[in-house]
Please model this.
Amino acid sequence: MDQRGEPRPQEASRPAPQRDDHPGDGAASAVLSLALATVRELSHLAGAELRLAADSALRMALLFIAALLLAALAWLALAGLVAALAYQYLGSPVPAIAAFLLCQLLALGAARSAWCRYRRYLSMPHTREQLAALLGMLRQGA
Model:
């Protein structure tokens, strides 16, 4: 405005501010916010399972080395048992060698069981389950 109170030419030609209120904006914003939160949580779950998978892979590598050592010991025990069976006709050290072999085979079975348990984590089952549920919900909504 000038000194007389009349509007200046620039101010008079300026359009009035328009309101851009659409009734669906709040719902769309809420859906977008929910989708972003879901993606964020899914990425946190995937990150946690990737760390678990990496830890499991390391443990599996160590178990593989242990299984190789146990297999070598079991082979030595089996060879000792065969030798002792041959020696049985001359003496009786067979029960001690058979017990040694049994201990090695039991340890090898325990290592295999742990291997199978850690291998399950490599497939990231919880992340895949959550992703499948999310995709199912999206298919139902579409």
About this structure: The longest helix spans residues 25-88. Residues 27-141 form one domain. DSSP finds four helices and no strands in the chain. The mean pLDDT is 80.
